[in-house]
Design goal:
Blueprint (H helix, E strand, L loop, with lengths): L8 H5 L34 H24 L8 H4 L16 H27 L2 E2 L13 E2 L21 H28 L2 H6 L8 H12 L14 H24 L2 H6 L2 H4 L4 H40 L10
Antiparallel strand pairs: 1-2
Helix pairs in contact: 4-5, 4-11, 8-11
Length: 328
């Protein structure tokens, strides 16, 4: 069988020898036949030679497509990924704002502080009178007293009723939460000194302690200005100083005054309470230091709210911030 030239296809398939117009590209020779081909064919091919030639061309096209799909990634026939080299897209890794140590110790301290606050309030309600010196009771003059009803009927409070006495469970919860805070704080300080967290993130530099930097930061806080995105990655000078004061002054002092009220601890280390002026003096100082910590907590929550509550909460839970910015 002699193959025909493509230029003769319309003449061979045209009825009465009248050439048809060149058809569009189709992939079926005959309707319903299912034979694929990339050749221009007429609507209906009836010549056996034309059908055989179109069929062989279609098979060759199918084999060529299968071959190139198999070797497109080889060295012989480069594929789309290797034929045109593309520039490497730089990937940016967002650093973690807070380490795992900071996040874990922060939330443990938060839970323990809330437990200490609730249980401490119950302990104060049992005897809302404060003294100075070694001894003090309901028969001795007070340094000051809180204008609230007591939970014990023998404590003179000026009210004709008493509150429910919750002194038992509150003391157990207070002591247990206090010891958890002690060990959590020791872990934070020791690891923070070893890995440089305190030096890099809390200790202010020489330029930050200048009067101009301090006055600018104080003025912006007094105006309740929203912090910039750069402050999401680093603490300002007021934050650094306040955190250092809480970590190294208020927390150690509240632990010291709390232990000074323990008879077992005082019997082993009597000098710790003698320096404070007595157990009742330690109790009064413990109350004021606790109020200072509560005030710090309120200011801290307000500043977090103004700076963006959900972004700051996300950073303290996951360690990431919503919008990565360049670290300053």
């Amino acid at each position: 069988m002699v193959p025909i030239r493509p230029s003769e296809w319309p003449l061979r398939n045209a009825p009465n020898g009248i050439p048809r117009a060149w058809p569009v590209y189709r992939y079926k020779i005959c309707k319903g036949k299912g034979i694929t081909s990339g050749l221009p064919v007429a609507r209906e091919l009836t010549d056996p030679a034309t059908i055989l030639l179109a069929f062989s061309r279609g098979v060759c096209n199918m084999r060529a497509k299968w071959y190139h799909s198999r070797v497109s990634d080889s060295a012989c026939v480069p594929g789309a990924a290797t034929a045109v080299p593309t520039a490497a897209v730089p990937t940016t890794t967002v650093p973690s704002r807070h380490s795992v140590l900071v996040r874990v110790t922060h939330w443990i301290t938060t839970l323990c502080f809330l437990a200490l606050l609730v249980s401490g309030a119950e302990i104060v309600i049992s005897h809302p009178r404060f003294y100075w010196g070694e001894t003090g009771n309901d028969l001795t003059p007070t340094l000051f007293k809180l204008p609230i009803p007591a939970s014990r009927n023998f404590v003179p409070s000026g009210y004709g009723y008493v509150l429910p006495d919750q002194n038992g469970w509150s003391r157990y919860l207070h002591f247990q939460s206090a010891w958890v805070v002690v060990f959590t704080g020791l872990l934070y300080v020791v690891v923070g000194l070893m890995n440089g967290h305190l030096r890099k993130n809390l200790f202010p530099g020489g330029a930050d302690l200048s009067w101009r930097a301090l006055s600018t930061s104080i003025a912006s806080h007094l105006r309740f200005e929203r912090p910039s995105e750069a402050e999401a990655w680093s603490y300002n000078v007021l934050q650094r100083l306040s955190y250092l004061f809480v970590i190294f002054v208020l927390f150690p002092f509240v632990i010291w005054t709390g232990l000074a009220m323990s008879p077992a601890f005082v019997s082993a280390f009597p000098a710790t309470v003698n320096v404070l002026g007595g157990q009742q003096s330690a109790r009064t100082l413990h109350f004021f230091v606790s109020l200072s910590l509560v005030l710090f907590l309120l200011v801290h929550v307000v500043m977090v709210w103004l700076a963006g509550l959900w972004n700051r909460m996300r950073a303290m839970i996951t360690g990431r911030v919503a919008k990565p910015v360049e670290r300053i």
